[in-house]
From TrEMBL:
Residues 11-250 form the Peptidase S1 domain. GO terms for molecular function: serine-type endopeptidase activity. The keyword Disulfide bond applies. Keywords: Disulfide bond, Hydrolase, Protease, Serine protease. Belongs to the peptidase S1 family. CLIP subfamily. CDD domains: Tryp_SPc. GO terms for biological process: proteolysis. It holds the Pfam family Trypsin. This is Peptidase S1 domain-containing protein. It comes from the Eukaryota. The lineage of its organism: Eukaryota, Metazoa, Ecdysozoa, Arthropoda, Hexapoda.
Amino acid sequence: MFRFNRVSVYMVLWTINNAHETHPYMASLHFFHTHLCGASIISNRWLVTAAHCTTLDLRYSNNAIRGFTIRVGTGLLETGGQEVSVLKLYDHPLFLNSFPVGFDYDISLLYLEKDLTLSTTVQPIRMLEIDENYPAATVVTVIGWGLQHEYGLFLAEILQEVAVPLVSNEDCLTLYNTVGFSSWVTDRMICAGHEEGEKDACAGDSGGPLITNNSLIGVVSWGYGCARAGFPGVYASVNYFREWIRNTTGI
C-alpha cells in the first residue's frame, strides 16, 4: 500500500494554544475548502508543497485553480487563522515525467492572490541552501494533520509532529529494493524514519514540512504504507531544488 497523499501512529500532539505559534510557517492546502495537503510558508506571498497535491487534481477539473486556498495561523484543521486563495501553481516541470512510476521532482510552488498578514503565528520558514547537508541519523521533525494510523479514517483535528532520524539514500535504496522500488528513490529525495517504524508521515501530510534547526529541509512526498518497519518516509529534498525555487520565486 503506497501513500501518495501522505504524521502517523504515536504522534506527539500539540495543544490548540501553541501549535501555530510553534510552527508559524505551517499551512493547510485546501481544495474547495477541504484539507488536501500540507504546505510551508516561504514568504508573505509564496508557499511550497508537493507536486502530486496539485498536479493530480488539475487533471480532473478545468477550474481546479479556483478551488485551491491555503489556511495559515491556526493549529486547527478546518477553522481559525487566515484563508487566502491560490492565484498560480508552479509544479516542477519534470514531475510528470516520472509519474505514475515514481514521484521524482515532487515539489510545487503556490503563489497567493494577496499577501499574507504576517504575525507571531504566520511566518516564513528558512529554506536549506544548496551547499547545506545533514548526515544520516540527524533527528528531524515532520508536521501535519494527516492520518494517525495507516488504516485510519479521519485526519487529525489538531496539528501534530513527530521526530524521526534521517536515513542515508544508500540505505533507503537498499530498503526499498526489498519491495522492488529502489528505482523510485533518487538524488532529489531524502529519507527519514526509525528502523522499527512506528513514527512517520501518512495520508493527508503530503506537501508538509520536514524541518531541523528551524529550516525546511524536505517536503512530504511518498512511502510504503505508514510507519512500517524497514520503510522510511521519502521527502523531496529542498536543497536540491533550492535554485529552482529561487529562480521561480526570487526568494
